[in-house]
Amino acid sequence: MVINEAVAGFAHLYTYGVSKCTFLAGLMGRPIHNEEDVNCPSPDSFNHDLLCILSCHKFPKFACANKTAHSLYNWLMYYLQKKDFVQCPPNMTRHTAEIVAAL
Q1: pLDDT tens column, 16-40
Q2: Is 43 in contact with 16 (CB distance < 8 Å)?
């Protein structure tokens, strides 16, 4: 299957919504993480910074899958980096140790 080949190199897969997680997990035979579980905002609330020239933008109520996927990816990368930094700051120095101790 093409989708399994495309994501074979990724240990964790994410999507937004329970129904999509269930569908993809059944289709691919591997767990899919729901971004709602980590308090990801609704894709409708994102400001898209990606320019897309697909014809789907002629329809006002039609969501662009490319822009939505790009926005969800950016949010997830921000969330994971923030989580890593809070739990284990890189390059622990005397000053960061004092800040962590103060928290």
Answers
A1: 899 989 999 999 999 999 989 888 8
A2: yes
Residue 63 and residue 26 share a domain: no
Q: Tell whether pTM > 0.70.
A: no
**First-to-last CA distance in the chain?**
49
Q: How far apart are CA 80 and CA 66, in angstroms?
A: 21
Indicate whether 18 and 59 sit together in one domain. Answer: no
| Other CB atoms within 10 Å distance of the CB of residue 22 | 13
What domain range is 84 assigned to? 43-103
- Euclidean distance between CA atoms 15 and 20, whole angstroms: 7
